[in-house]
Amino acid sequence: MATKTIIPGLLRANCPRKELFEGLQTVGKAVATRSSLPILTHVRIAAKDGKVSMMATDLEMWMEHTLPGVGITEDGAATAPARNFTELLAAMPDADVSITVEDDTNTLHLRCLKANYKLLGLSADEFPLLPQVKEDSRFVMDRETLRDAIKQTIFATSTDETRAILTGVLVVFQGDSLKLVATDTHRLAVRDCPVKEGTGSASAIVPSRAMHEVLRIVGNEEGEVVVTLSGNQIQFQIDDDKGSKTTLISRLIDGQFPNYERVIPAQATKTLTLAREPLAAAVKRASIVARDSASRVVLRTTEDGDKLTITAESGSVGNAYEEVEVARTGDDTPVEIAFNAKYLADVLNVLDTEGLHIELTEPLRPGVIRPTDTADYLCVLMPMQVV
Hints:
9-stranded antiparallel sheet, 43% strand
């Protein structure tokens, strides 16, 4: 059976305000904030086959959200200014919203109880449609696993646009495993995770902006994510338990990711084992003093070896001293090493383990942080000079 053609200039549908608003909020992150093309500041809304879809793009990232089971009496498509459309829906009563486009003037009529608005749109024909991503490589994984993997790596991406390669997350898929890697040269985060099913293999650098949006869409719900890679694009498809579907497509960053494996120390001469929460709290407090001294905090073991001190000094603020319990293995030389407090706090805050290992060699050699209860994650931190 042939599917109906979407006709620009015709659209009649009724949608629950809350679901329509949430859908617009989802795709709104892909709306272009600065563009010479006015259509990119709009959201495309379409009705077809009993579903309403909303789409936005800045030509680097596309997002589409589809609502099932809505009341459609005329298939069609239209556009509306994203900001005005979203703000109006946010302020309307919590009832069904009637969306109508009845002629070729590209005027979107919105009715909700006694509220009646007209938004001047543009022709839906001008809107760049969602690219078709070929299934060169494809894998399926749990939403929870992907969420944790992104959280545990994305903080280590660089914000320096002159080194575009480092502003993304390296995604390496092969067989039944997936590896996510991020680095800004001061720190490196690596997470290995399983996939449920997959075909092909791929290595790609995904912009951190797209990864942040995937993290937001995945949320805290259970379910699966279908990921497809082809050429210079990656696609994430996420269904929720209400029957809605969100698709995100992003261009990939072109280039060669650094050989990150060579910066991971082959072995440690000493290992400190600590409870994560007390250490995270101590570093958070010490960082207040450390802010005016390049965020430097110094870790030292006490003479008896069962305590780790965290100190910071600032000529304009004062001194910080914290002490946490530690178990130590390896050689018995005293530990004295400095780290950037923010970098240390970032990794401590994305771990959900009770304990962690800090693996060390020399004061000016990288330290490695690993959870005590799993071998699928590590974070390498470059040290600072102890002054």
